[in-house]
Amino acid sequence: MKYLLDTANLDEIRELSEYLPIAGVTSNPTIVKREGAVPFFAHMREIRTIIGSLRPLHIQVTARNYDGMMRDAEAVFRHVDEKVFIKVPVDFAGVKVIKALKRQGANVTATAVYGMDQAFIALEAGADCIAPYFNRMEALGVDAANVIGSIAGIINHYGYETEILAASFKQPAQIDRAILAGAHSVTVSPNILREIFAKKVVTDAIQVFADDWSDLYGGKMLTELDE
Questions:
Q1: Cross-strand bridge partners of residue 108
Q2: What distance, in Å, lies between the first and last C-alpha atoms of the chain?
Q3: What pTM does this model have?
Q4: Where are the alpha helices (DSSP H) in 34-133?
């Protein structure tokens, strides 16, 4: 079970990587757009510097056809590094790209997955990770947890080495359901991760502890107490 950051914001990546057990970073064109017209490859290299070489960095192709997506992947390898997980949308051309990149030994993430049918084909094409869109499926009336559970069942039954990297969350409860359904990892925006720790019952409980301690010892910290 791994938590990845779904952002390209350098400050957020630095801070949350310091505080939380962050296993890597994912990005896509929409996420990059939030940062403005940054120098793309230099920005991605800076993310790599922050997270190090052992944690995965996922970068998505932007072209819409096979030749263009392959050129995109080559540009990422050339300007960032060859350890990057290339995110490829699972459409007709994308499956061909996944197969070709895997023949080259590249790391590949199959993204924009909205159902089992796409996922099963991506598995057979050799994708290292499959990214089902949890909230987007739920918005379409699809049982996202059931989809993830079914993908996990097929992975286990046939012995695929592919991992489920669940994506597209709007609330922490969706993350819980994805993990319980069988997702190996989740990629989550910084604001949703922060919501996990912002529950009122939690902050209220911590405040009670603080008040009780203050009543006993007049606000002194543990390190200020005598033997």
A1: 86
A2: 42
A3: 0.93
A4: 40-51, 66-79, 92-103, 116-125
CA-to-CA distance for 180 and 174, rounded, in angstroms?
A: 10
Would you name the residues annotated as active-site residues?
Answer: 87
Structure tokens at 112: 């924009």
Rounded distance between C-alpha atoms, residue 219 and residue 213, angstroms: 7
* 108 in Cβ contact with 98 (< 8 Å): yes
Strands 163-166 and 2-6: unpaired
d(CA 25, CA 47): 8
- DSSP conformational letter for 130: E
Tokens, residue 215:
């009543």
- Cα of 46 vs its chain's centroid, Å: 18
Which tokens in the block code for residue 157? Answer: 């039954």
Average pLDDT for consecutive 10-residue bins of the chain (227 residues)? 97 98 97 96 98 97 98 98 98 98 98 98 98 98 98 98 98 97 98 94 93 88 85
Between CA 148 and CA 143 the distance in angstroms is: 9
> What are the backbone dihedrals phi and psi of residue 188, each rounded to the nearest 5 degrees, phi first?
-135, 140
Amino acid at 216: L
Q: Is 58 exposed, middle or buried (0-12, 13-18, 19+ CB in 10 A)?
A: buried
Integer-rounded Cα Rg, in Å, for the chain is: 21
